[in-house]
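Input (structure):
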């Protein structure tokens, strides 16, 4: 008797699941990637002072102000940069820059000396 009830329940449930799945077809599932939303790349701008240029690592270290759009406080951090970008700045210079951030990894998109 128990086996018959279990089998009947399984049949009813299995026939109902496809209908339930069809009802979800119009739902906006938003971010369906496996990465959390905050890890997706964002662009932002900031200004600061060049503290170090490291051509071997391909980085420029900048002490920059807060970046409200990313909810970052003022800090000093290294940014990945192209050789051309590294050659365009010197330690001690004030700069404004646009960068792409993925979590705490950031790459310079554009950097200019502040006026």
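Output (sequence):
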């Amino acid at each position: 008797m128990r086996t018959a009830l279990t089998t009947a329940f399984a049949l009813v449930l299995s026939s109902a699941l496809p209908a339930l799945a069809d009802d979800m077809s119009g739902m906006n599932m938003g971010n369906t990637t496996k990465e959390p939303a905050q890890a997706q790349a964002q662009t932002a701008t900031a200004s600061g002072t060049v503290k170090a240029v490291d051509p071997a690592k391909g980085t420029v270290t900048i002490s920059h102000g807060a970046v409200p759009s990313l909810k970052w406080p003022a800090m000093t951090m290294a940014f990945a940069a192209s050789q051309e970008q590294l050659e365009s700045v010197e330690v001690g210079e004030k700069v404004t820059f646009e960068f792409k951030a993925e979590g705490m990894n950031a790459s310079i998109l554009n950097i200019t000396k502040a006026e």
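Notes: The mean pLDDT is 80. The first helix runs from residue 2 to 23.
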